[in-house]
């Protein structure tokens, strides 16, 4: 089984090398790695070229934003299973081997989503993120969240869903996973910590600059699932649904409490630090 990973990057030089290293250092898996850069001017392309011999495909071409860049990247992908890693995030060592093993054991699984760490700009873990069980209705009511960095899907599911919506500027990943679920994809949980998700002022999540658009998108997702607009009663149902995620994963509140009191129990398998002096991989 071959896994294709796409990394999109635009002026993310402070984080990019860490992301690339976390992919090319994965062992025990057949890897197809695609890196897309639409026109960085901050030295990112020098970093990419430093690892060029370990990257399957590099795309230097303008695009219409991240989802368009991802579509271009996956159009070049040759794997059986797809995943994508933003340039400011990273995989834990051994992550892709665990993903490949899970898909091999369960040929009926279309989408597999694991747990991960939320980290700051320096890579220091802030808290753990546990992926709850996923369904379209749960997603519509805010019960199901998907950690994109720890989520992987078969080529067939991606093709059926039609790829990413390039008009979506806030949650193109969530929309893709929702379309997969609505198309009948089976989503399973991989109970391992797969990735690090970085929150920093320059990230979409960290900046909060697109909050209004994000709300509009989530209202649209609700209509896609329920076939109607939100009603006043749905606000209360959403509160119940969010509370229900703790019933679906009883370990979640325990983990959150431990993270708040003693900090995340970080695995010793930390991603390798970049070697900026030489660029040796």
Tell me what the structure shows.
- This protein is 40% helix and 20% strand.
- The model is unreliable at 268-281 (pLDDT under 50).
- Helix 6 packs across helix 7 (172-182).
- Strands 1, 2, 3, 4, 5, 6, 7, 8 and 9 form a 9-stranded mixed β-sheet that branches.
- It is built from 11 helices and 9 strands.
- With 281 residues, it is α/β, with parallel strands linked by helices.
DSSP strand tally: 9
Q: How would the global form be characterised?
A: globular
In whole angstroms, the N-to-C terminal distance is 24 Å
| Strand portion | 15-25%
The secondary-structure element order is EHEHEHEEHEEHEHHEHHHH
Largest β-sheet summary: 9 strands, mixed
What would the average pLDDT be, to the nearest integer?
A: 89
Number of helices: 11
Main attributes?
281 residues, nine-stranded mixed β-sheet, 20% strand
Secondary structure blueprint with pairings:
Layout: E1 2-8, H1 13-24, E2 30-37, H2 44-50, E3 57-60, H3 66-75, E4 81-84, E5 90-91, H4 95-105, E6 111-119, E7 125-129, H5 136-140, E8 151-154, H6 155-161, H7 172-182, E9 187-198, H8 204-207, H9 211-226, H10 232-248, H11 251-261
Parallel strand pairs: 1-2, 1-4, 2-3, 6-9
Antiparallel strand pairs: 4-8, 5-9, 6-7, 6-8
Helix pairs in contact: 6-7
Concise description?
Helix content is 40%, strand content 20%. It is of the alpha/beta class.
């Amino acid at each position: 089984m071959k896994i294709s990973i796409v990394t999109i990057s635009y002026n993310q030089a402070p984080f990019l090398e860490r992301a690339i290293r976390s992919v090319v250092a994965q062992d025990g898996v057949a890897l197809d790695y695609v890196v897309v850069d639409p026109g960085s001017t901050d030295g990112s392309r020098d970093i990419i070229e430093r690892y060029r011999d370990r990257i399957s495909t590099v795309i230097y071409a303008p695009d219409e934003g991240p989802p368009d860049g991802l579509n271009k990247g996956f159009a070049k992908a040759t794997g059986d299973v797809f995943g994508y890693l933003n340039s400011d995030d990273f995989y834990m060592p051994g992550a892709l081997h665990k993903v490949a093993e899970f898909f091999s054991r369960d040929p009926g699984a279309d989408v597999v989503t694991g747990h991960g760490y939320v980290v700051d700009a320096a890579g220091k873990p802030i808290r753990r993120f546990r992926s709850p069980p996923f369904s379209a209705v749960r997603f519509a009511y805010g019960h199901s969240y998907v950690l994109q960095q720890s989520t992987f899907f078969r080529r067939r599911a991606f093709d059926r869903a039609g790829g990413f919506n390039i008009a979506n500027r806030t949650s193109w990943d969530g929309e893709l996973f929702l379309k997969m679920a609505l198309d009948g994809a089976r989503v399973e949980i991989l109970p391992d910590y797969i990735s690090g998700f970085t929150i920093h002022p320059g990230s979409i999540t960290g900046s909060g600059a697109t909050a209004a658009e994000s709300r509009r998108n989530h209202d649209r997702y609700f209509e896609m699932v329920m076939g109607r607009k939100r009603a006043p009663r749905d606000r209360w149902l959403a509160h119940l649904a969010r509370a229900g995620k703790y019933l679906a994963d009883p370990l979640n509140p325990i983990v959150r409490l431990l993270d708040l009191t003693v900090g995340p129990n970080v695995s010793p398998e930390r991603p390798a630090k970049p070697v900026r002096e030489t660029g040796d991989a």
